Amino acid sequence: MLKYIIRRLLISIPELFIISFMIFMIMYAAPGDFLDQYRLDPTISAETLEAMRKEYGLDQPAIVQYLTWLKNLFKGNMGYSFYYRRPVSDLIWERVNATLILSVSSLLFSWALGIVTGIFSALKKYSFSDRILTVVALGLIATPSFFLGLLMLYLAAKTNWFPISGMISTSYNQLSAWNKFKDILWHMILPVSALSLGSFASLMRYMRGSLLDVLNEDYVIFARAKGMPERVVIYKHALRNAINPMITFLGFSISGLLGGALFIENVFGWPGMGRLIYQALIQQDMYLVIASGLISAILLVVGNLVADMLLALVDPRVRLT
Amino acid sequence: MVEANGKVLTGEVETEEVEFQEKYLSRGQLIWRAFLKHRLGVVALVILIILYIIALFADFLSPYNPLEQSLRHTYAPPTKIYRSYKGQRVGAYVLPVITFVDKVTYERTYREMLYPRRVVVEKPNGEREVYELGKDGVESIRFQVSSIESIKINGEWFDVKKSPRTTDYLLFGYNDEALSKGKSRFETNSAVAQEVYFKAYGTRFNLTDEEQIEAVAITETIDNIIVRKDGRLQMLTGKVIDFDYKTYPVKWFIKTWNGKLFWLFPLNLHLFGVDNYDNNPYVKLFIMGADLFGRDVWSRIVFASRISLSIGFIGMVITFALAMVFGGISGYYGGLVDEALMRFAEIIMSIPGFYLLIMLRAMLPLDLPSTQIYVLLVFILAFIGWAGTSRVIRGMVLSIRQREFVEAAIAIGLPNSKVLARHILPNTATYLIVASTLRIPGYILGEAGLSFLGLGIREPYASWGLMLAQAQDVYVITRAPWLLIPGLFIIITCLAFNTVGDALRDALDPRSLG
Predict the structure, then answer these.
(1) Quick check: is B274 in a domain?
(2) Contact B354/A262, CB-based, under 8 Å?
(3) Mind listing the pLDDT tens digit for each residue in B249-301?
(4) What is the C-alpha separation between B445 and A145, in angstroms, rounded?
(5) In chain A, what are the domains?
(6) Close Cβ partners of B315 (under 8 Å, ≥ 6 residues apart)
(7) Domain limits at B433?
(8) CA-closest candidate to residue B197, choices B317, B104, B315
(9) Residues B107 and B172 in one domain
């Protein structure tokens, strides 16, 4: 097992290099650079601009810039953000918490909801409640996440039950620890529900389809014919097999933990990674973009690995060699 | 019996019918028959056809030019269409509207305007006279209104200000009763009004607190009616005993703005619109309200559908063309080509999709003309979708290549390109048709997302995502919730494509063909 993990991680290293290089080349090929916004400013002299170019290393050829960045990466330095003039790792670290709060809770929420409703509607196939759930899920799959966010925003504005934007209230610093927690929780409700409603729908459809497939298998029919109680047939035999395809899906969910909430963060003004990445892209803040792209790619690798390992744990037929 | 779905029991004749169909219907007809069995799929297909027709005939269906601004109508609500006039049923008509910040509540509201068309005046000597626009040389009818502002303190009303003015119109729900009842009264006790009047008159009445102003009222009366008749102004001082106001009829097939049918033929005939016979700038027919610049939301939705609906379709075609070429080549030839292409595809797949989308978009200049952005978006979307599909096609080509008919084709001596194009790729058609239908929503959502973030189609042109971007502000969303309507169109379109895709999958499944 350990050998397998190490081998997988080793294989992914060149892949990560290529990805980081590709992102770098895309950013480098983009017309203009970070300094464009300063060039338009008449108060900044040409000498200052030249000095800034030197300082940021933008005067070097592309390959030198990339290699310098790579060298620094091995020293644990992911580069400096042009815009914030701070180490990229600090910036990302600051935002990671806010995003993780959002995405982890919506991940848990949507998986719990998706699996439960998926099982429910598979067991009550073609019943009224199954049809309702199916219609709701198909509708949600067709809904862009930002539209869901806008609807929630409208709800918040109309009812005044929920805060409209941000992660904390203005009086946050004066609150006690318990009230701080409640404050964040209160701000979270809308973005988390918008996020989880979006992903719950496809999870539910997958779970339903997968369980229905398994319920048609011979061993389920056999278990029933043997006179096993329905509860045992479903939860001990069918469900265990039906959950396997879902685990691969979990890998994808893990990779989307940091960047996946971009729209919702934008709509609700949530100070998370998605917005950081988006702004960095627009401002051509090169190292911030590459670093966050690299982190997303690492998450994808890790997510897939975790999914494979979980699959091996759950399904004795799968052997990792 | 081939058919086992219960039809056997219903009688000899029907069984024969079914057998006849199976024998003599072509494969296409059989697929169509299986598709028709999928009720929801048929409904969704009809919806899609309607949507594409809307996009095609956009100029005919939109009552206004989607780029035409009317700053008088910022966030105008959907225009109310009336069917009755003074209790009588008449043809549909609308009234002019104006943004109006009234003096007492300081709230910005849209109010309908009362433009006089005919007044009957009883003169002090008991004589009645009728003045109707366009008749007997009457050119205009205006009002001289005097308005009295008063405040209520300790249950007693005090008049604080009296101001006369001349106006062309009155406002419904505000001062229209000045005409019908001789006097109108608008009363409020809003906090804003209290504050404003406290500031202005607090010292005069020795007030210490805003709350002491219990209410504020504006009373308006019509002093004179000024009629311009045969080029001369007349002042009428009598009592108005009857009046009519201007209405603007809503008509089907009306000639208004100049559009272009199918981008080519000039067309000024439109499905519906309001007959604005005296070019009143306040008259508009917004069936779905107006946006920040007073543009008609419905017209913009119709024109935006061209972008949203075509981007999905064209993007899908390019994706699948790429996927067929690359997937086909790497599956058929194998070896180094296969290895290189598939590794490249894997790397593209390992960068999170939307991240790659934004990155590619950011790579290209932001301020391009909309037509170029459109082309760019299509290619970016196609480029991202290409990797996954080509892997599937490669897999299919690998298995089809082992089949006898391919070996036979090779044995006959057909060149590789022909074997691939004539014999192998057509066998992936079923998958391609289903997958492409199911993939289109992804493109539509991708375009909507980019435009929503301001990276896609740009103002003044419209796409559904861009229209939703206007609704990002909480204040806008509460004032103009109709700006969310484009989102419904996105949902309906994606839902329809998904449903048609499902139905197609069922219909193309060999087991369902009977």
Answers:
(1) no
(2) yes
(3) 888 888 887 777 777 788 888 888 888 888 888 888 888 988 888 898 999 99
(4) 9
(5) 96-268 (1.10.3720.10)
(6) B377, B378, B381, B382, B385, B443
(7) 297-512
(8) B104
(9) yes
- Pair (B119, B236) in one structural domain: yes
Q: Name the domain count of chain B.
A: 2
Within 8 A of A266 by CB-CB distance, chain B residues are 453, 472
Closest CA to A198 of A103, A278, A314: A103
Residues 6+ away with beta carbon under 8 Å from A289: A23, A27, A277, A280, A281, B359
Determine, yes or no, domain membership for B422.
yes
Residues B311 and B459 in one domain: yes
Residue B86 lies in a domain: no
* pLDDT computed for residue B496 by the predictor: 92
Q: What is the CATH number of the domain that holds B394?
A: 1.10.3720.10
pTM: 0.85
Considering the domain architecture, whether residues B504 and B359 belong to the same structural domain is answered as yes
pLDDT for B52 equals 93
**Residues of chain A contacting B468 with CB distance shorter than 8 Å:** 146-147, 150
pLDDT tens digits for A2-59? 888 888 888 888 888 888 888 888 777 776 667 776 777 777 777 777 777 777 677 7
Residue B105 has pLDDT above 80, yes or no: no
Q: Give percent of chain A above pLDDT 70.
A: 97
Query: B220 and B313: one domain?
Result: no
The chain A residue lying nearest B348, using CA atoms, is A19
Residues of B in contact with A293 (CB under 8 A): 351, 355, 359
B477 in contact with chain A, both atoms CB, cutoff 8 A: yes
Identify the domain boundary among B202, B228, B245. Answer: B245
In B, minimum Cα distance to A255 occurs at B352
Specify the pLDDT at position B511. Answer: 63
- ipTM of the complex model: 0.83
Contact present, B59 and B68 (Cβ < 8 Å): no
Task: For residue B75, name the pLDDT band (cuts at 50, 70, 90).
Answer: confident
Give me the total of CB pairs closer than 8 Å, taking one residue from chain A and one from chain B: 116
Report the residue of chain A nearest B489, measured CA to CA.
Answer: A143
- Provide the CA B287 distance to its chain's centre, in angstroms: 9
Q: Measured between CB atoms, which of B350, B449, B477 is closest to A144?
A: B449
Q: Which of B366, B372, B463, B491 to mutate to test the interface with A (most CBs of A within 10 A)?
A: B491
pLDDT of residue B7: 46
DSSP states along B292-337: TT--BHHHHHHHHHHHHHHHHHHHHHHHHHHHHHHHHHHHHH-HHH
| Contacts A138 to B, Cβ<8 Å | 495, 498-499
Q: What is the pLDDT of residue B298?
A: 92
pLDDT, tens digit, for every residue of A251-266?
Answer: 778 877 777 788 888 8
Q: What number is the average pLDDT over the span B75-100?
A: 86
Query: Final residue of a domain: which of B245, B277, B306?
Result: B245
**Is B442 touching A (CB cutoff 8 A)?**
no
Q: Which helix (H) or strand (E) holds A154?
A: helix A145-159
Instruction: Note the Cα A70 to chain centre separation in Å.
Output: 25
Cβ burial of B273 (10 Å; 0-12, 13-18, 19+) is: buried
Q: Are both B212 and B311 inside the same structural domain?
A: no
Do B351 and B451 lie in one domain? The reply is: yes
Which of B363, B380, B438 to mutate: most A Cβ within 10 Å? B363
Q: Under an 8 A CB cutoff, do A158 and B487 touch? A: no
Q: Out of B174-178, B322-326, B376-380, pick the least confident.
A: B174-178
- Residue among A31, A164, A300 whose CB faces B474 most closely: A164
Residue B235 and residue B312 in one domain: no
Does residue B189 lie in a domain region? Answer: yes
